Amino acid sequence: NEDTKNLCISKFIEYSDIIHLAFYVTGDDQNEKIDVQLHDPHGKQLYKMLDVNQGEYKDEAKSAGKYKLCFIPKFRSSPHYISFEYYSAYERGHTLNMAKDRIYRFI
After folding, report:
1. Mind listing the pLDDT tens digit for each residue in 38-53?
2. Is the CB of residue 21 less than 8 Å from the CB of residue 84?
3. Cβ atoms of residues 38 and 47 within 8 Å
């Protein structure tokens, strides 16, 4: 099942809010790579990077709803980690306890 290999996070974002995404991959092997995809509430792909170990995205939300971010590991030769931030400008300015910094380990 592909979903068990992928890490996907959905987040409700208001219309015209600014979406922020930044990520970095680390691990025992410096060649660890992932694919990254971000989709709007209608399933339209807004961002796609293939075979990368870091990246950033920032844009205005064109509609309100759940935006889905997915990280897809390329190889699992050794454990690797993804550190990322995924938040909106509204969250950053008005929420004190954001769950925006996370490190995930893929085995």
Report:
1. 999 999 999 999 999 9
2. yes
3. yes
